[in-house]
Design brief:
2 copies of one chain form a homodimer. Chain A is an alpha+beta fold. Helix content of chain A is about 55%, strand content about 15%. The radius of gyration of chain A is 15 Å and the shape is globular. Chain A binds a DNA duplex through α4. Chains A, B: GO terms for molecular function: DNA binding.
Chain lengths: ~100, ~100
DNA sequence: CCGTATCCTCTGCGATACTG
DNA sequence: CAGTATCGCAGAGGATACGG
């Protein structure tokens, strides 16, 4: 709908990474599927609403996919798509950088 | 001052990249010093205030440094610090990713 | 267990105008 | 040319409560 002027492709990747909880969600998914409650337990300082909101955003962007199982209680899992997996090398560098400069 | 709970070092790097114009500013600095007006000319969709604001933020975070020359008209240049240069590999991957998925 | 609906706060962003 | 000062707004982020 709305056309954005951008200087270079960098900005498009930046937009994904700019949302506060997307990075950590993708990171937790690097080894395979994760359940909703596990995100809740493992992500400090967030809350359920924010996590679900970001999960939906990531689905829209086709970075992750949802798997629902019709059991009781309800069970839902998320996995990375190829597009999502392609982000992992970036996240790994971000992790190293964070360790290098911000962890004593 | 304010202690933040975080899940992993990733989040600290994420915080830098989350600001809208930092990434493109650092990117323009990858080949050496850049003058204020050149940022203005080369960054589409932004404005002077935002750029200066982000430049100051990057100085606080010690990712760039300022060089002022006392001439008329005034001349100012910015350069990457080591900490800033260490971010370049990440930006390169972000650039490739952006090209791969968002440029036809 | 999973997700939605409100409501409210705060700040990032942008436009504009002005100073050295 | 470089930088500051105002003002305003939209939307991200967060707390809480409810529904399937």
């Amino acid at each position: 709908m709305e056309e954005k002027i951008y200087t270079c492709p960098l900005e498009l990747t930046q937009k994904i990474l700019s949302k506060k909880w997307t990075v950590i969600i993708l990171w937790l998914l690097r080894h395979g599927k994760v359940r909703t409650k596990d995100f809740k337990n493992q992500i400090k300082g967030s809350n359920e609403k924010m996590i679900i909101e970001h999960l939906n955003y990531l689905i829209e962007e086709k970075l992750i996919e949802k798997r629902e199982y019709d059991v009781y209680p309800k069970k839902t899992e998320y996995v990375l798509t190829e597009k999502g997996k392609d982000l992992l090398p970036i996240l790994e560098l971000m992790q190293s950088y964070g360790k290098k400069y911000y962890v004593k």
